[in-house]
Design goal:
Blueprint lengths: L3 E8 L3 E6 L2 E6 L14 E8 L3 H14 L5 E3 L5 E2 L2 E3 L9 H13 L5 E6 L2 E7 L4 E9 L1 H11 L8 H8 L10 H28 L4 E6 L2 H5 L7 E2 L3 H17 L2
Parallel strand pairs: 1-4, 4-5, 7-10, 8-11, 11-12
Antiparallel strand pairs: 1-2, 2-3, 6-7, 8-9, 9-10
Helix pairs in contact: 2-7, 3-5, 4-5
Length: 256
């Protein structure tokens, strides 16, 4: 049996994250840090969540074959039911694989709890997961960086801020009403994100008449968390955790 049973890969729109046994890493799409895999033992199989398109998937598969030719691999897609989670989407396969894996990871991390997952990537996504494992639906909005980029691109007098620039100017804001344009743009988009999360959290509490754990993840989670006025938990490995559970479930099923 392989010392590294699974190579887990979460290919998002901005970055690719991976893990294998005790090793893990992340890199941009145009970065060549697949070389880190050279020090890994040969995995038994690769499990991939990809929402970044066919070209990214093809590159990932080429790099897998460079290190381990013909390694078995599975590209995960959402199902109607898996690993204790039931998919409430009208067309279950339309749910992004990252969101599906995240739901499975959250179900395992917080069993028998109602959970609202907020993930801050290129898009901000929300998933409502009941304590019985039912995913009842979600929301999708532009992410923090995408909001700022859109404003800068479509208005003549606003700057186009990337996340690093926005974080620097955000640190200069002593209250939410900024005194320069760049800080006003950064802080305004943070508050827009936080307000969305708080509204969804409170609406879900009112709808379900129950306690709900708000779980935050993603690249902009620190900034949004600083603006939130509701309790929350941080968990940055839900997708990879969900992939691992899917892989283990498949292995267990194959031995029956």
């Amino acid at each position: 049996m392989s010392d590294t049973p699974y190579l887990l890969i979460d290919a998002g729109n901005s970055r690719i994250k991976w893990s294998a046994s005790a090793a893990s890493g992340a890199f941009e799409h145009d970065d060549d840090r697949f070389a880190a895999w050279s020090s890994l033992g040969k995995p038994g199989s690769a499990w991939i969540s990809n929402v970044a398109g066919a070209a990214v998937l093809a590159r990932i598969e080429r790099m897998i074959d460079t290190h381990w030719p013909n390694l078995p691999r599975t590209v995960v897609r959402a199902k109607a039911q898996q690993c204790g989670v039931k998919n409430g989407y009208t067309e279950p396969t339309q749910l992004g694989s990252d969101r599906w894996c995240g739901l499975i990871g959250a179900r395992a991390a917080y069993p028998e709890e109602n959970v609202l997952i907020a993930t801050f990537g290129t898009a901000t996504t929300l998933e409502a997961l009941r304590a019985d494992g039912m995913f009842t639906g979600g929301l999708i909005a532009p992410g923090w960086s995408l909001m700022m980029h859109s404003l800068g691109h479509h208005t003549a007098q606003l700057p186009t801020l990337d996340a690093d620039d926005a974080r620097r100017v955000l640190d200069t804001v002593s209250n939410r009403f900024a005194t320069d344009t760049a800080a006003a743009l950064s802080a305004g988009c943070v508050l827009a994100q936080a307000s969305l999360i708080e509204r969804a959290y409170r609406d879900l509490q009112a709808d379900w008449q129950a306690d709900i754990r708000l779980v935050l993840s993603g690249g902009a989670a620190n900034e949004i968390a600083g603006a939130l006025r509701v309790p929350h938990t941080r968990h940055d490995s839900l997708v990879l955790s969900g992939l691992a559970l899917i892989a283990r479930d498949a292995a267990a099923s194959s031995t029956l």
